[in-house]
Amino acid sequence: DIQMTQSPSSLSAAVGDRVTITCRASQGINNYLAWFQQKPGKAPKSLIYGASSLQSGVPSKFSGSGSGTDFTLTISSLQPEDFATYYCQQYKSYPITFGQGTRLEI
Amino acid sequence: EVQLVESGGGLVQPGGSLRLSCAPSGFSFSNHWMGWVRQAPGKGLEWVANIKKDGNERNYVDSVKGRFTISRDNAKKSLFLQMNTLRAEDTAVYYCARASATYVSFYDYWGQGALVTVSS
Question: Which residues are CB-contacts of B6 (< 8 A; sequence separation ≥ 6)?
Answer without folding.
Answer: B20, B21, B22, B94, B95, B96, B111, B112, B113, B114
